[in-house]
Amino acid sequence: MNQLGEKLTSPLTGTVRVPGDKSISHRALLVAAIAAGSSRIEGLNTGEDVGATIAAVRALGSPCRMSKDRTQAQVEGCGYSGLTEAEDVIDAGNSGTTLRLVAGVCATIPGVSVLTGDESLRRRPMARIALPLRRLGATVDGRRGGELPPLIVRGGSLSGTALETEVASAQVKSALLLAALGAQGITSITEPSLSRDHTERLLEASGVVLGRSHRTVTVDGGQCPAPIELRVPGDISSAIFLLVAATLIPGSDLTVVDVGLNPTRCGALEVLQRMGARLDTEVLREEGGEPVGSVRARASNLQGVQIGGEQIPTLVDEIPALAIAAAHAEGETIVTGASELRVKESDRIAALVEGLGTLGAQARALPDGIVVEGPAAWSGGDIDERGDHRIALAFALAGVVSGRPVRIKRWETVNTSFPEFWDVVSQARGEHGGRADP
Ligand code: S3P
User: Fold this and answer.
1) Is 195 in the pocket of ligand 1 (CB under 6 A)?
2) What residue segments make up the domains of the chain, in order of their start?
3) Which of 33, 301, 329, 433 is deepest in the core (most CB within 10 A)?
C-alpha cells in the first residue's frame, strides 16, 4: 500500500508475444482446406474455438496434421469439389466464427451438413447467414426457421448474386465470400460499414482475384486458392489486455511484438491514444497480406472519450478491455452503435455493467452501448463471466491493475482464446515460471 491506501501493482515491462490471431487462424485453416494442394500454417491460436475449426475441416474431408503444441498445421486441401458431406453433426462449440464460416463452405458441398454449438452459440443469431446463403441457392434451415442453431445446410450448385448484409459482420461477410467462391458467376457483398477484412487479404494472398471498394467486395466464383505458407501474427484482441494494463499501471513500459496490425482491427489503439495513452505502433512486415509489427505502451493518464459509428466493427472485441480503461479514466466514456455486443458469446453490455458495478466502478447500459464514469474506487469481488472469455479476461485485467482480489467464476472460459494470459502477465512482471490460475 502507498500513503493513499492504494495497493501497488508491479509494472509491466520488456517485450512479450501473444498467441496467434484467432480470426486469421480460422480463415487460414478453411482457405487451406479449399486450396488445391498442401498448406503449412504456423503460429495458430491454440484455443478451443480454433480447435473446433480444425475438427470441422477434418470432418469435411480435408486431412489436417497438427504439431503436438497445436500451433502448426499441415492441411491437405481438397479444392471445393473435393470436400464431402460430414458423417456427423459439426460441433462449433462456443465459436460463432466456426459455425458461420463453415456454414458458408458447407453451402458449396453437395449433401447435408448439420452445424451446432454450445448453449451460448445456440442462442446467437443465424438468420444473418441463412437468408443470404439461400439467395445464393443453398437450402438452410434451423431452429425458428433458420434463426438459431442447429443449422441444416443443404449445399450444391450456387449462383452468384448481389448481396447486402444487415450488419457489419466479418463472420457474415466471410461466410458469404467462402460460399461465393464456390458459386457460378459473380457475387458482390455490401456491408453497412467495413468489418475486418482478413478473409479478403488471405484469399488475395493466395491468388484469388477480388474486386474491393470500401464496403463492397466482389468475387467471380470458381477460383481455387493456391496453397498457403503462413505464420499467423499475434492476436491484437489478446494483446489489448496487456496494452491496457501497461497503460494503467504506473512505471510500465511494455512492447508487444509480432502482433497483427490490420487497420480494420486496430480501432482500440486509436481510441486509447485519443484517451491519452502513450502508444507507439510500428508495422514491420507483411504475412499473408496482413501488416505485422509491434506496439509499445507506457503508463499514462487517461481521459474519457466517445466511441461509436463506423469505428465499432474495428474494435468490437476490444470493448471489454476499453471499458476497464474507461473506468480508470477521468470523466465519462460513452460507447454507442454497439448493439452487436448484446449477441456475442454473452450479452457483453449487461456483463460489463454488472462486473464493473461489483468492482466499485460506475457504469450504465444503453440499448446499443455503455456509459462508464471514471475514475473508479476499485474493490475486489466475484465476477460471473457468463461463460464469455473476453469478459473473464477484462475482469482479470481489472484485478491485475487494481491489485484487488478478483475471482472469476469459471476461469477456464479463457481457453476459448487466450489460455496463456497469466504466463504472459507473469513474464511482463519479470516473474519466473508461470502463475497459478485464480
Ligand atoms: C470475428 C468477427 C467478429 C468478432 C468475432 C470474430 C471473425 O464478429 O466479434 O470475435 O473472426 O470474423 P462479427 O463479425 O460477427 O461482428
Assistant:
1) yes
2) 2-20+233-428, 22-221
3) 33
Q: Retrieve residue 290's grid coordinates.
A: 496482413
Q: Which residues contact 412 (CB under 8 A, 6 or more apart)?
A: none
CATH superfamily, region 2-20+233-428 = Enolpyruvate transferase domain (3.65.10.10)
Distance CA 347, CA 194 (A): 23
* Whether the domain at 2-20+233-428 and the domain at 22-221 fall into the same CATH topology: yes
CATH classification (class only), 22-221:
alpha beta
Query: CA–CA separation, 341 vs 347, rounded Å?
Result: 6
Interval between CA 97 and ligand 1 midpoint (Å): 6
* CB of 338 sitting under 6 A from ligand 1: no
Task: Give me the pLDDT at residue 97, please.
Answer: 98
Residue 5: its pLDDT value, please?
41
Residues of the chain predicted below pLDDT 70: 1-8, 432-438
CA of 172 to the centre of ligand 1 (A): 9
Q: Nearest to residue 34, comparing CAs of 201, 228, 220?
A: 228
Using CA atoms, how far apart are residues 219 and 200, in angstroms rounded to an integer? 10
